[in-house]
Every structure is written in C-alpha cells, then in structure tokens.
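Exercise 7.
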Amino acid sequence: MSQIILSEALLNAVLAIAQQASEHIRRFYGNSVEIHQKSDNTPVTEADLFISQFVTEQLQLLTPNIPVLSEENCEIALNEREKWAQYWLIDPLDGTQQFIDGTGQFSVMIALVEHNQPVLGVICAPILDYTYYAMKGFGAFKQSQNITQALPKRHINLTHPLKIAVGSAKKIEQVRSFLNPNFDYEFQVFGSSGLKGARVAEGIADCYVRLGKTGEWDTAAAQVILSETKGIIFDRTFSPLTYNQRDILTNPDFIMCADDSIDWQKIFQKP
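Solution. The predicted structure, written as tokens, is:
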C-alpha cells in the first residue's frame, strides 16, 4: 500500500474537509435531532452519523489507498488494522453531549496516524468558529475569523497556579486527590476532549486531566498539536498513549500537559 507524504497541500485539503463538515454541523445545530444510546451508554445523534460518513467519503476521495477509522465505524479487527502503515482517525463530533446541550463546545477532529503515531491533526469548532491544526515538523496554528496565528512553544512557570482543564465540576476533587499539595491550582471546566487539549497547546490551560473512557480518536489530533508546541501526553503511569496496537481502541486515563521539560511526576502522583 503506497503512503502519502506530509505536505502543506495535504494539510490544506484536510482543513477544507473539516470546514465543510463544520458547515454541515451548523445546519444540524439548534434543530431537533434524533438521539440514540450506544452500547456504552453514550449518546450518538444523526449529526454524528452524517458527519462520519461525509468525512470518511471525502478522505477516501483525497487519499483512496489510506484506510479511514471513525468513532462511528470502528469495528475493525486488530489483525487487519495492524497492517496499516498509515490511516485516518476521525471523531466526527467530539463532544456529542455538548452538541445536544447547545453549549457550542464540540468539534470535528481528523488525524493522520503513521507507524502508530499521529502526525497530522485538525480540530475544528463549528460554533466557536476556530480551528486548531498541526503537522509533524510544520508547527501548530489557530485559525479564527480568517486570521491564522502560530502557536508558540509553551514554557510553564510553576510559581504561578497551574491551570488544569477538566470535563466536569464533579471531576475536580477526584483530580485534586492525586495532585502534589505543594503547588497551587486553578480548574477550568470545558467540553470536547480535543478542544481541551488544544487549549493546553494555546496557553489557556496548562494541563488537561481525563479520568474516564475515551477512544484513540479523542486524543490523536490534539497530540500532534501539543507535540508541535512542546507539550506531552501520558497515562497515569507516565507512559505514552498507544495507537492501533491493541484489540480495543479505548484509552486509559490520561493527562495532557504543556512544556515537556517539566518533571510532571512531581505534580501528578501515581495511582
């Protein structure tokens, strides 16, 4: 199977697909949509399914020889997936509950994974009207209202309170239970796993702690953006996340942090 080469043209094509998907989501948003419960008791809407099909079809047109793995179409056995040197990994609507609740804190996420590591990532927030994107060795960027700005490499000053993003207020005490009490902390509650990771890369937050079930599609795009801004992602044992190497596509609990030069084991204590 032939591989595609990372290029600015490829990145621009993926950005265009994400923007088109966002236009479709905006048409669904605010209207009554059908909501179903998946086997894991998480919601899925007709918007998720439509965007999944749309993005999959567009990526197949762009790169016919590269497989596409979507959250909504992921029942592919490891013995088939492990043959993939490259594949697209997408979350068509990251933050479905936020979409249902009308907060605007959700995104379309597209990543290219190469040799089990994400190398290109796009996170597009249709209602908030901004897009984060990065490509290995190319840098990370935020685009908003036709203005594109490079995201600089992060440097954390631990004499200031560490800003930690979480998905809900009820997680704050759980996270606080394994923090080093000798440092100060501020907590931010925000939707969409991918957007929280991007906010770490941008500097709005310093860390994002996720306790609970996520899929590999929830972290891949943000991991590229983080790595291009000197960020890092690891599980509770401080091991890196893996992609396409296990029978299941479920992530362990993880932490995304800005500034890979800091000894994060001083902050977060092992379980």
